[in-house]
Amino acid sequence: MTCRVFGLEPEYAYGEEKTKEQFNLDFDHDVDSMDFKLNDEPVTKSFGSRMNQKSRAGVIKPTGSIETSANLQIIGHYFWALLDQYKFTAGNGDENIHEFWGSESKLLKSFRGVSVEDEFVLYLMGLLVDSMKLECSSEDMTLGADFIYKTEFSDKLKGGAEYERVTEELENDLFIMFYDITLELNGKDPDGIQTSLTIESGNNHDVDKTIGFGARHPQGQAKANKRENTISVVTTLTGETVDSILDARYGDVGAVRPTKCKILQVPFKVNVELCEYPDLGLTIFFPKCTLLAEFDSSGVDDVEATLNMATLGSDKVTLLDGSEVTTDMYVKLVNNMPEIAPSI
What we know:
The protein is mostly beta strands and 344 residues long. Helices cover 5% and strands 43% of the residues. It contains two helices and 21 strands.
């Protein structure tokens, strides 16, 4: 039987060794694609020959990736792994509020994971999200995550045994569709019709400094370096959008040629509200972004314009409790999941 499943739970301590019985996943979910590998290329020596003569085991730098349909119940774990700050507020009934934002911490939250590939299971420890991508056009929003991790062990499903799902079905876990999404650029609905959205964030972890004498695999947690957030929105060049596109292209409102030194810096917000569950939702807010515009034409096709943004961490965001934080990315998630915390 085909079974391609991935699950997560936060760790108390980075890379803490656990047996498979001690894994206590918060959830598991189906994936469209998944790949975890040790990257353990052997070291070979030829000693002057045209053929390799000897080889020994090389360094292990494990990496992994998953892609799935984004939904409001699972996405919080990925945001906490991507960003370094998290605050939970219990809501009315099961509608709980999770806030995430990027700050200056270089040691991010680590997770344990389980990767199921039909006939065997990989148990992964010390998972860190190195980058994350959200993408949507005319169908569902896809969630992609790239990981680095410390180590793993495996378990073979023998004699026709099947993987026992942690959660057969999460409550209200509908995948996000394009019609659930609205955008705000500089505090208002963007002109025209937007047909594609891509958000990419990266932590640029430094793995090389975690492997030293006496071990093949990472011995400690890799530190995150510069966080890079980029946003891309595709729209069609029309009479409604030409002014805003030229403003972005030339760096100032109303400019008809490149300005001497100005660039547009604007806030950008993505709002998600499920049609069937309007009390649940997601807000991704970038308080200040540089804004550039590119467009191209081909034959008689409509001219497509792309608004490209990169974030700046120099503006404040007010949290639910009234406190202010300086950040380049803030996320407010309302779902039915409890506080994200390591299990006992």
